[in-house]
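User: Okay, second chain of the day. Same drill as before: sequence in, structure tokens out.
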Amino acid sequence: MSKTFVMLKPDALERHLEKNIIDAFILEGYEILRQKIMTVSKDIILSHYEDVIKRLDLEYFADAIINAFAGKEVIVMELKHSKKDAVHMIRELIGATDPSKAHKESIRGKFGKDSFETASKEKRMIQNLIHASDSEESYQKEVTLWFE
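Assistant: Same drill. Structure tokens below.
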């Protein structure tokens, strides 16, 4: 058994895609261990994206994250899969971070409408529907941050 953390971002909820996305997870054999809808605080989202903010080192990025998330609803989930490496396989199912480059059969490929190029020009966070942990370490940090 393998576990991962997934967040359906505000753009997924605003477009009412949560059922489509969760159904895709279940169809692939994922089981939801924990799930909750919550309104995002500035502190939790800056903590969540702390490493990305440091890595990208863009002057506008922290504000872009706050604008995209603070005060908005997300759905956070802890998922497990009995046969697959949940962290890596869910990221394949979700597709490339940039929806314009995601495989057309992936979730972002089917439902994504944004690109890094457009988001960068507009100095905003990319609208890519979903966040999923990228490693076992990220999963541990994120599940603790959002559920504990």
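The longest helix spans residues 136-147.

User: Thanks, on to the next one.
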